Amino acid sequence: MIFHIPWIYVPVRNVLAIWHQLTKYEIPELTKPSVIMRDRGRVEEIIRNMHRAGPGALQVISDFDMTLTRFAFNGKRCPTSHNILDNSSLISEECTSKLANLLSHYYPIEIDNSLSVEEKVPHMVEWWTRAHDLLVQQRIKKDQLAKAVRESDAMLRDGYEVFFGSLKDHSIPLLIFSAGLGDILEEVIKHNGVFHPNIRVFSNYMEFDENGVLCSFKGQLIHTFNKREGALLNPDQFEQLQDRPNILLLGDSMGDLTMADGVQNVQNILRIGYLNDKVEERRDAYVGSYDIVLVKDETLDVPNAILNYITEGK
Ligand code: C5P
Ligand code: MG
Predict the structure, then answer these.
(1) Which residues of 191-211 are buried (b: 16+ CB within 10 A; e: fewer)?
(2) pLDDT score, position 264
């Protein structure tokens, strides 16, 4: 039409641009160099939807090892919940060395980008089974676990006080879905003083005999790539959470992407993935699957900033 006056469009376009960049100003952490997003506009839309619905509609579903804990500190790898025990004084030197051999054989398989999940699964089952069998032979006492954690190099990611504290303050449930050791990871969280009542853990738990000695592991084995099955087979874990249709999902493995599959009626899900290791080989796969990828980022700054935006003024 003749009345297509450009100056009308300019402000409209500007308003749209400012609206589109809202989270850039509200959440400057999203501009950190460690952040990669496949579709920034979509991420902003999801976050805005979550802000509108508020903390009452939100739940956080997170992996533990290398997601809530640091991958490295001062250039040195930090332990997983398994490694805390593997390297503790509760384990004989011979057993520590056998567990280290298992790690150096199976961990490269776990993160190998050229293998499919189907190809990896039998190796993961073998790894967990062999490691748990070795641990059971060590006659580990329940009352010594806290000491093993205290003496370990395990660290929650920087910003953990704000993360755990803000979820507690806004009564947002935090469901931790871990293929690690439940007894140990609970100790790590307690040791850091943030094991609040809004936390629920779904993990591999130890069974102790009448003398408090580890004798087996409870229930179905959880490894890196069967979290979806676990989520679907354990509707009780999710039952109370069905009225919270918005999910912030945190993980560090491709297996963590399906942790929320047990939640029905999901309205908005934002998947944040920590890419800690083999960055170049795995970048494309992570960017293709996670909404936000955090490359070698040892902090919870981005999840904290998003939570702050969602809960702001509520
Ligand atoms: O909490 P999350 O699900 O991340 O815990 C699993 C992690 O523990 C795996 O990514 C794996 O690398 C590690 N693991 C380990 N020792 C084992 C088995 C698994 O360090 N024996
Ligand atoms: Mg992990």
Answers:
(1) eeebbeebbebbbbbbebeee
(2) 85
